[in-house]
Amino acid sequence: MSPALIAYRLLTRLLEPLAPRLLDARVKQGKEDAARVDERLGVTTVTRPPGDLVWLHGVSVGETLSLLPLVERLQKVRPDLTILLTSGTVTSAALMAQRLPAGVIHQFAPVDGPVAVAAFLDHWRPSLGVFVESELWPNLILTAHRRGVRLALVSARVTDRTAQGWKRFPGMAHALLTAFDRVLPQDETSAATLQTLGARIDGLVNLKLSGGPLPHDAKAFIALSAAIGDRPVVVAASTHEAEEIAIVRALDALDQRICLILVPRHPERGTEIATALTRDDYRFALRSRGGVLGPDTDLYVADTLGELGLFLRLADVVIMGGSFAPALGLPPVGGHNPLEPARIGKPAVAGPDASNWARVTTALNEAGGLTVVSTPADLPHVIGPLLNDPTAARAMGERARRAAADAGAGLDRLWDSLQPLLPPASPVARGRS
Asked: Counting CB atoms within 10 angstroms of each CB, which of 274, 301, 305, 310 has the fewest?
């Protein structure tokens, strides 16, 4: 065992008694769910169903959403298995409450202390654990491995900063990565780094490229469509700090009246966005405060959770947020998933920062389904012609849809890789398949 790993285990054992107090402080900050904070200590009120259980883990919203196609595949092919999905944020838990199919259990992941980890594993007794991206907690992973849990690290992404951190502790990195039965990075760069650290690579899979269109409320769509009327709709999706006001100002240059819908990545920023718009004398409606998108509402802030699919369907053109930060003098965000509008056939425009989605952004751009601009000020030059020519906009959206379909084949590769790690199917499940 490496000195770094020994030191980590000793330190977490010594500090774990402080965990309840730290969690209580996070509850007061709104970072933990007061009613479920004990789950962070491995304690739960949820009864474990009998039979085999598969455990999926993603730290936050993006990672947990990327697991939904795998959840659906597991439920369809292996209905004998119980599925447990864990995450680490209040927002992801709220979204999973809306999106998880019936019968799938959500829990908060335990803190990485020996006692909490043991309590979690004692209760849930998973047969297989699937970790998404780069959520590597030494006590959780190594304790599960020692107990015979088969483990997979999928859609793994390693940033330069993470790689440099692990290279300082190569023995710990090697122990963690060799505990996994399967390692499937999402790109060649991450694969090379993980291999250098000791992982055996079993192929490439990016789960965020898989899956179907985001869901939506059909009744809400009909009502909002009627309220908007004939006005063209521009949706700025998953926006971040300063992007909203920059996009609003830029689109003032359009020569037609539009309905602009802002969908912030973090809905709790609604008040902040409202303050910025009010300061610049813009009239708007805020969805979280009951604001109505009516015939006279040209600017709508959709600061609610889990409704992006609804607003994307209303769009004639989509602006991808999280891609303009450097152009606004802010630290880069890396962009957000451009396949979300592409899967429902919507043309999109993105800023220059799409580092987290470089390959798919390039693919969509080369297919003619997405345009990249340098600054928000460039948006009217791309969006204006699309709004003036709906036929061209629909054709661009269809090109995006075809490119998205080509990008989404990774789930089959992942399923082929995971099947040997699953427990044998029960007779009932074999009869259904």
From this structure: 305
- Ranges in the chain, pLDDT < 50: 430-433
Q: Dmax over Cα atoms in the chain, in whole Å?
A: 67
SS3 of residue 354 by DSSP: coil
pLDDT at 261: 98
Query: Which tokens is 394 given?
Result: 């629909």
CB atoms within 10 A of CB 176: 23
Q: What pLDDT is attached to residue 427? A: 64
Q: Which residues contact 99 (CB under 8 A, 6 or more apart)?
A: 65, 68, 215, 306
Classify residue 56 as left (phi > 0), alpha (psi -120 to 50) or beta: beta
What one-letter code names the amino acid at 322?
Answer: G
The pTM (predicted TM-score) of the whole model is 0.77
pLDDT tens string 383-404: 999 999 999 999 999 999 999 9
User: What is the DSSP track for 164-187?
Assistant: HHHHTSHHHHHHHHTT-SEEEESS
Share of the chain above pLDDT 90, in %: 85
Quick one: how far is CA 292 from the chain centroid? 28
Beta-carbon neighbour count of residue 194 at 10 Å?
A: 25
Q: How far, in Å, CA of 363 to CA of 165, rounded?
A: 31
pLDDT digits (tens, 9 = 90+) for 32-80: 999 999 999 999 999 999 999 999 999 998 899 999 999 999 999 999 9
Three-class secondary structure of residue 160 per DSSP: helix
- Measure the CA–CA gap between 431 and 433, rounded to whole angstroms: 6
Which residue in 297, 301, 286, 157 sits closest to 239, CA to CA? Answer: 301
- Calpha distance 284→274 (Å, rounded): 8
- What ranges in 321-432 are assigned the alpha helix state H? 339-342, 358-367, 379-388, 390-407, 410-418, 427-432
3-class SS at 54?
strand
CA proximity to 16, closest of 113, 88, 142, 138: 113
Q: How far is CA 56 from the centre of its chain?
A: 14
